[in-house]
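hey so u asked for the seq, here:
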Amino acid sequence: MNGAGWIVGGLIALAMAGSAAAQELPVDLEIVLAVDVSGSVDDVEAQQQREGYVEAFRDPLVHRAIEQGAYQRIAVTYVEWASYNDQRTIVGWTLLDGAEACERFASMLAEAPIGRGRWTSISGAIDYALPLFDGNGFAGERRVIDISGDGTNNNGRPVEDARWDALDRGIVINGLPILNDRPQPFGMPTPRQVALDDYYERWVIGGPGSFMVVANDFEDFRRAVLAKLVREIAGHDGPTRVVLAAR
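ran it, structure tokens below
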């Protein structure tokens, strides 16, 4: 190809890239909600997690946080994960621009079956989430992966490697560690959760403004997820570690 050909080809590529970007809808936030359904999470706990998110998206505090953004809309997708090769999108990318859209999203989430799996691969969840931002139709002022779970990474590649890949792309990782001492399914020993919040703070969360909200147990998950979502949507600064006051 001669010099003129390279120039023409370059102009065409730029035009196509600009056209693709123009088709993406600006939003205040793109967020992947990545929820642990691994072996350490029993049926009751899995249901508590799901109900926590359903109730949060029906809460006026979340609706108000969306309305206070520059674009007054966000894009959300909900993912469940377990081992390094076990992740599934439960509700795909959805535009939330008010109470009615949030209610529809909550209803879809409430009606979807809850998956189950073994092993805990936080790195696998991050790796699965990264390409979900590509070509999703939205252009977020902020892009966030939110990891909630009750255990440390015990499957797949090192979690810090996956985290760095996300940070290199400008994607923030927030967390919701769930402290848990319930008996485990499949006859597995109860994981040591004393330092799970420390683990999340050191190895999982990262990026500008990243934070985590600590749930004292699965029953406390509902309060924790509401507090986390409101702060994520609003984009407010605050402490890296949030521990809710005892009820």
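The chain is about 40% helix and 20% strand. Helices lie at 3-22, 43-57, 60-67, 99-111, 122-129, 159-168, 196-204, 221-234.
lmk if thats what u needed
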